[in-house]
Design brief:
The chain is mostly beta strands. It contains one helix and seven strands. The mean pLDDT is 88.
């Protein structure tokens, strides 16, 4: 279950995305952060401990919202618009440097 509940702007076009192998839906105009937090309790786990992370500054400055794509690249979830078909991972990919 997600942490965010959509209260308004429900008439935007739906987008599909995959998080950790499971398909989900969000709406056009959502950031990756808002899309993930609408379906999951956290964005990712900390690299330095077991704590769950969900973004902090929400403007791309604090580095707390990094999330991985299945191809191994990272993006800032708080400032990246969700794109149809994005494939995201909440944990560091096994082959990530």
């Amino acid at each position: 279950m997600g942490r965010l509940v959509r209260l308004t702007e429900t008439d935007r076009a739906p987008l599909r995305f995959v998080l950790d192998g499971a398909e989900h839906r969000a709406l056009a105009g959502d950031t990756v952060l808002s899309a993930v937090l609408s379906v999951a309790p956290a964005l990712r786990r900390s690299e330095f401990g077991p704590e769950a992370r969900a973004g902090f500054c929400l403007m791309g400055a604090c580095q707390d919202c990094w999330i991985w794509q299945e191809d191994g690249s990272r993006l800032r979830a708080c400032s990246t618009p969700l794109v149809e078909g994005m494939r995201l991972l909440s944990d560091i990919p096994g082959d990530w440097p």
